[in-house]
Amino acid sequence: MSHVQALGYLGFGVSDLEAWRDYAMNFLGLQAVEREDGSVDLRLDEYASRIRLIPDGPDDIAYVGWEVADAAALAALKSNLEDSGIEVADGSEDLAADRYVQALITFNDLDGMRCEAYYGPRQRTEQPFQSPLGVRFKTGRQGLGHIVLNSSDAKAAEKWYIDVLGLKLSDYIYAQAPSGESLSFAFLRCNARHHSLALFQLPYPKKLQHFMLEVESVDDVGRALYRAEERKTHISLTLGRHSNDEMLSAYYQTPSGFDVEYGWGGLEVDDESWHVLTHDAPSAWGHRFQIPSM
Ligand SMILES: [Fe+2]
């Protein structure tokens, strides 16, 4: 069975593009590239775009782009989707150009979230990524980072992403929501990154709970904490170390209300030696929840 290789790109529909541009460049250290259609590309490596900010949006995830190896892998994935009874469309040449890829297919997950799978992402090696803050991000074959999605049926979603997209289960975390409710997270991987996708289920207003960017230097985790203090960016979860992927990170509220996890030191997994684990706490230490001040 063909499977996706990496979390390749994300689209965010945002209500305040100005605030996002500033946040992306001057807090996260991403490179912003203006587009003719009024949207903004965010770069964090050699890829032409990793995150697209789409103006006048509902402040949630608009689409997720999953990378496959080549045209044959894309065709195999399409067959697998069709065999699973999922409606799939070939992306037009215009859409492929818009996403800076050779070709793509589009389909929805169980919650109706738009998914895209593609091959041949355009690399801008002639215009190297330049972070306004000198930050370097860990990406490459591990993809852009990870996303955590709220699902109306997390168990069904877990099965869907494993059976249909070929992701593998890394582990589970049982935790308690700040509201006191019991929470269960499933962590799924498609490369050496411990997880590219995590799924949970809670009456939460957004599909995207957070996305994670991993920096190459632990110092950039510290610098971001101090930038947050200076800019008065809300720290949603204080500095901590996750139990399962060992990420040293803090979480910050984005201008869209969902969070970004900004971390370092994430665990790398290999399929031969990995076995599924269960954790009864999300963090070895830290990651204390902080209520946003209104
Ligand atoms: Fe995370």
TrEMBL record:
Residues 6-120, 143-265 form the VOC domain. Gene3D superfamilies: 2,3-Dihydroxybiphenyl 1,2-Dioxygenase, domain 1. CDD domains: BphC1-RGP6_C_like (cd07237), BphC1-RGP6_N_like (cd07252). InterPro entries: Glyas_Bleomycin-R_OHBP_Dase (IPR029068), Glyas_Fos-R_dOase_dom (IPR004360), VOC_core (IPR037523). This is VOC family protein. It comes from Aurantiacibacter sediminis.
